[in-house]
Structures are given as structure tokens and as C-alpha cells.
Amino acid sequence: MGELRKDPILGRWVIISTERSKRPDSFVKEKEKTEDDKDKCPFCEGREKMTPPEIYSLRVPNTKPDEPGWRVRVVPNKFPALNTETELEKRGYGVHDMMTSFGTHEVIIETPDHDRDIKDQTIDEISDVIRVLQYRVEELQKDERFRYILIFKNKGKEAGASIRHPHYQIIGLPITPKRVREELHGAEVYFKLKERCIFCDLIEQEKSWGERIIYENDGFISFCPYASRFPFEVWILPKDHSIDF
Amino acid sequence: MGELRKDPILGRWVIISTERSKRPDSFVKEKEKTEDDKDKCPFCEGREKMTPPEIYSLRVPNTKPDEPGWRVRVVPNKFPALNTETELEKRGYGVHDMMTSFGTHEVIIETPDHDRDIKDQTIDEISDVIRVLQYRVEELQKDERFRYILIFKNKGKEAGASIRHPHYQIIGLPITPKRVREELHGAEVYFKLKERCIFCDLIEQEKSWGERIIYENDGFISFCPYASRFPFEVWILPKDHSIDF
């Protein structure tokens, strides 16, 4: 079933997943991967039985779960990195620390249509997806065993997407990732030093320079960060000082 | 010329390099890249003028620099991430911290023969390469502006190697990378807690389990770490408790 293991030097937790090695394209070189096959896509309308039973969906009244008629559909990942059937248990193992692979790994299918990418979706359709993401995060937050909930989307083979049909993923973790702890710590150190929020200061700085801003409206600002790690890195920040969305 | 920029939240330095964007394969998708062309390889014997002038070489007596007759050859990277022609200077920039792109980026060409990969090289040839790496590190250590010297080798296009001819790279940095600081810190915390070296403890643990050891001789041990981040991750540690090689 896999487990979480702690790096004894860096203090970073790593997911050791036996399930995910069963994915059909593991260890296959890019050029040898089969092309995404629309005729067999498990996320398309009419193939609901190909995924695990759905957790949630937005659908036409009087249609049943795991049948056609949905607009947005949430299902468990078929090859989960973590799962909620495991009890959360922490153990020492020699000099090491480990934890059972408790957690959740959900897939949010944005649309029944294989080719309806975000650029083709209407504002209403995109709003539906965002509301479902928000709902799932709120549901998962009720379980105190989760320390961190991550939403992500891989788009394109280069980004690791094994299925082209538009979808997000949500992972609920029993630990706070090292990178997140570091961000919280960095913001706290800055606040102790300056008595100001670092994100608010960064927004002000970018607005005064005006060089790296991509888009701005009443609620949000997006820009390329000063110390980008890779080309085209973009941040989207809420302009109001608030701790969550 | 590029510069180093500090991430204001994580404290991580990022190299912003204008030179490297000039590399011929930047932003070209894998399948569009031209195949490595042996007839034009700048690292092959006889094409010494295609690289910047050599820094060092092991060669047949009475042959001249930048001419054939070498066994191992050290040249500056033609598209350096950092360079020593820049003065090391630190500046504030609004809320940010930056540093000029002082540093070094060298290429160690292991063999004059394009196809003579490490698996084909003799022990003597490999020893030559390692001695040259060691020599360059010792030379660079004499410059107090360097805080960290990194040796690495990209092999294969998947790993980012743009030239197939066997070569190492050395980067000398004016900062200690965040990851390295964290390793030093982690080892220190462990020592303060246990009054023992974490690396020595990890070697003992792996030897007692015997599950993850790949190879061991009098001087070294190699194993897959308990909390591997990716499949086939391998560590090679000296069995003697020593701070460097």
C-alpha cells in the first residue's frame, strides 16, 4: 500500500507509492508512450464505469451517479499516491521515521467533453469547476487528520499528464510539506522584522515597478516573480490581505 | 550578463542567466531538437577552436593547448550561467536582494572520442578524469569569493545534456545553495541531539538491513536511500568519517 518516509537529514517527507508504479506508462520513454486515445478515455461521458465510483458531481436533475448527465465530476484517482482506507499511524523504523500512507487523491473532471480545454470553456463552466474545487477542499478540511490540501493541474505530456481530458487533482496530506512550512516561516520572519506582510509588500513593489505585471483587476494581481526559478513562472495573488481564498 | 536574485520568502538564490538563453536548443520541444551531430561536435579532437580557450588539459608532451593530443580537457562553458569577469557585488533592489553573476562554469571533456562513454573507459582513463576534477576543485577553492563548488554530469537528453560527447561540468558559486545549507543544518541538529554523525549512522543502518545496498568495497558504500525522492536514486558515501574526499 505504500507509506510516507521521512528524510532523516532534510526532514522532508516522501510518498513511497506502490500503487502508482502500476500506471500503464511508468518507466516508458516519452517517444514510446501510446498517444492519448480519445476512443478509450475513462474521463469521457458514457465511460463513467471506467473510473472508481464518483465522490461528487454537478449534474442534470434526475440523472444518477456514475451515469451520463454531469457537468463536473469528482472521482478517486485510480492509482492513488495515498488513500483514506489506511489508518494514520506513525512509527519509528531503525534510525528512520515513517507513517502509513493515509491521505486522499481525487480527480476533478472539468467537463464531459474530451477536447473542451479551459480556453474553450465558458465563464460559467470555469466557475462550476472552481466551486467544486472549493467544495472538496472544504469537505476535506473537516477531517483533522489532513494537515495540507493541494490542488494541482498537469497539462500536457511534458508536465506529466497521462490523460489529456481536462482534469484537476486534489491531494490531502497528513503532513505539511517542507516547502510550505518554509514559506510560512519566511513570511513570519519577515513580519517579525518589518511588522508588515511580505505578500502585500511584494504586490506594492511590483505595482511601483510595473515591469513584471501580467494582469490585474479589482481582486487579483498576476506577475512573474523577481527570483523566478524557470521561464514563464507566474504568481497570482489576491490583492486583499487575507489568509485564504 | 545576468545576475543572482534572492527569493524574499524562501531565502533561496536563483541564477538569472541571459547567456544561457542563447543556447541553440532553448525552448525547443524534445522531438524538434536536432539529433546530436558527431561531425560537428565541438568536444571532439581536432575541433579545439570551437570551444573557448582551454583552462587545463592532460596531453601528450610537446603538444600545444587548444590543439589535438589531449586526454582530458577543461574549457569554460560557452554559455556560462556565471562568469569570473564580473566583479562580485551585492545590492538591494527595492524589497529585494541581488548579486552580480560572479562565478565559474567549466566543462571537463573526459575523452577526445565522441563515443567513449564511461562504461568504455579504462580505469586509468577514469582516474585521469577524477584527478582533473579534483585539481580544478582545489584550484577554485583558492578563490575566497567561491562559497560552494559543484561537480555534475548530465547524461542523456532526458537529463538535459545538449551535447552527447562525455563531459562533466563544474560550477563555482558565490553562495551556499539552500539545499546544502539545509543538509549541513540537518547533520548538525542530529549531532547535537545524538552526539553522533548521521551519515555514519545511516551507513550502519543500511549495513544491518542489507536491503538497499548496491555495492560496497573497503572505501565506499552505495545504496538507495530509505526516503528516495525518485526511482533509482543512489547515494555513494565514503565509509571513513571524513569531511571531504
From TrEMBL, chains A, B:
InterPro entries given in the database record: ADP-glucose_phosphorylase (IPR053177), GalP_UDPtransf1 (IPR001937), GalP_Utransf_N (IPR005849), HIT-like_sf (IPR036265)
Gene3D superfamilies: HIT-like
Region feature Disordered, mapped onto this chain: 24-46
Pfam families reported in the protein's UniProt record: GalP_UDP_transf
Alphabetized UniProt keyword annotations: Carbohydrate metabolism, Nucleotidyltransferase, Transferase
Keyword field contains Transferase: yes
GO biological process: galactose metabolic process
Any one GO MF annotation of this record: UDP-glucose:hexose-1-phosphate uridylyltransferase activity
Domain called Galactose-1-phosphate uridyl transferase N-terminal: residue spans: 5-174
PANTHER family for the chain: ADP-GLUCOSE PHOSPHORYLASE, UDP-GLUCOSE--HEXOSE-1-PHOSPHATE URIDYLYLTRANSFERASE
Protein's name according to its UniProt entry: Galactose-1-phosphate uridyl transferase N-terminal domain-containing protein
Source lineage: unclassified sequences, metagenomes, ecological metagenomes
